[in-house]
Amino acid sequence: MSQIVQQTLRKLKEHDVRITPQRQAVLEFMIGTHMHPTADDVYRALSGRFPNMSVATIYNNLRLFTSLGIIEEMAYGDASSHFDFAQTKHYHAICENCGKVVDIFYPELDDVEVIAQNLTGFMVTGHRMEVHGICPECQIKQQKS
Fold this sequence. Notes:
It comes from Latilactobacillus graminis. This protein is 43% helix and 14% strand. It has 145 residues and is of the alpha+beta class. Helix 1 crosses helix 2, helix 2 (21-32) crosses helix 4 (55-67) and helix 3 crosses helix 4.
């Protein structure tokens, strides 16, 4: 088991969260994936190992992990939220055609909250940046049609 999984399991135990096999599987999937899956994606990935697990169980675990700050819920206006496990602050590029989400790591933007607070007087509690466009795969498909 990876160190990240072990650290995250410890955090769950610190919050008195019971570690069920399904909960651990959802956590390990989220840590191991480079996609930004929906709850349905997680369900499809794990349903072979846990045939009696429902989509509601997946949603409940994702909501729990979100409330504890373990994963981030990304609602982009489509029908389903996407979820992201990340240990470092980052941003997202989103394809307008297929919905693919790609991480962007750009540490120079880390100061944006301080700058915004200084310019506006707001007590900034967080920020999110999204870049929208057409991914390379969809660009190729468009060129072929």
